[in-house]
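Dear colleague,

Thank you for sharing your sequence with our group. We've completed the structure prediction you requested, and as agreed, I am returning the results in plain text so they can be pasted directly into your records. Please verify that the sequence below matches your submission; if there's any discrepancy, let me know and we will rerun it promptly.
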Amino acid sequence: MPRPKTGIVKQCDECGKDIYCAPSEIDRRRYCDRICERAAVAKRTDRTCAYCGAKHQRSPSMVGRYCSNKCYHASRSTRTSCAVCGRNLTQQQAVYCSRDCILEGRRTLEERPCEVCGTVMRVQPHQFGKRRVCSKKCNDELKRLKGPGARVLRRDGYWKVYYPTHPNADRTGYVLEHRLVMSQQIGRPLTKAEEINHINHDRGDNRLENLEIVDRGTHARESNAWGKKLRLNMHQRLAEYEQRFGPLTDG
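Please find the predicted structure tokens below.
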């Protein structure tokens, strides 16, 4: 005996033909075949540019908000006046107001030293506040932090700090905060055999008075004893609850 169909019948968004959709296809199936799907994708819809307001057409599969690359780059610019003459810029102009100002801006270059290697480089006026290095190599060197950076909380409750130049940093450039605090206190990097124990067992409390250097065996015994104590407390609270309100049930 054949099993009854549990799907629904809906219409194709392109040709209107009835199509049967299984329960797993109800939300995602819109067309009866590939031909209708390609025909729908090929259609263009009217859209409005998010920068200049001009009307343009795009396919449904395209997520473009701008009518051209010029509007896209102009929307990212925060300048309101020309970099050469100071005249107000229109929506389509990003740095200069005319071709003459573009040529003048390219001629009026300023010599500045690279912040990393000191090489003299020629910078255009609209790059005075942006360009700081002469090459990609110097840019990568500029990004390397000379001290601790971002502080991130891990899922296991430990804090980690972005410090790629530290000897105890991992492959991603992060070092555990409690290890960083202790290494700065003793004036040297920690070895792999040295582990840090939180005295009050709070992984997020990285005060110096709450940290101590122990070996792996001691750290494991401390952690196991604390975990056993937590489990016993949990069982005691559960027994007290069942004594007061009765045993727990699945319902």
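Summary note from our side: The mean pLDDT is 81.

Kind regards,
the structure core
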